[in-house]
Design a protein that fits this description.
The protein has ten helices and nine strands. By secondary structure, it is α/β, with parallel strands linked by helices. The protein has a single domain, classed as HAD superfamily/HAD-like (Rossmann fold), CATH 3.40.50.
Amino acid sequence: MHDLVTSIFRGTFVTEAATLAEKLNGVNAYIFDWDGVFNDGSKGEDGSSPFNEVDSMGINMLRYNHFIRRGANPIVGIITGETNPTAFTFARREHFHAVYYGIKKKTDALLHLCAAHDLHPSEVAYFFDDITDLAVAAACGVRIMVGRNSNPMLLRTAMEHNFADYITANDGGNNALREATELMKTLSGRYEDTILQRAQFTDNYRDYLNSRNVPSPAFYSVSDSRISEQTHP
């Protein structure tokens, strides 16, 4: 199966597929950077940058794949250094657990999230693309880096310093997240179960969806030099 994975997925396996599959077994949280991951990094006047439904479906199926394998929903969140209203809207719609925004030292956000949800950083899969994410990636159990032709030396540095397990073939403006989530579902060994149960809208998928839709995201930013919950982000 792992030979099939490496023949289908065109990204760079910094960690061998078989080892990456083993690491995924220990994951209980999926955390995403926003700019450059959900999009190409372009910004609007209000600080927003978009997402698309192709990536959204991939994330939902990744969460359902986790539910099939573990019998429970994973923790899901966003850590971004900027204030992005679209990210807030997406997190509410998709019932993420937390959004950390406007936090320049992202490792503080990671540790805060882990403490809030009784997690160790090794249980986190982190999806990221740039320099400000590297310290977080170094701490996490699974690291998926969005590839980009414009920064080959950054990609090389990430590989040489063990900041990434897989680097996507697609960039953030071309559904890198869908590629990454497809890879993770495939490595789980339950890809077809996940897709076919969703296609048939089975009772198990309904159970997942009902439980997935319970959380409302908490929003955190820096206030008085501390990370604190924000009432109206």
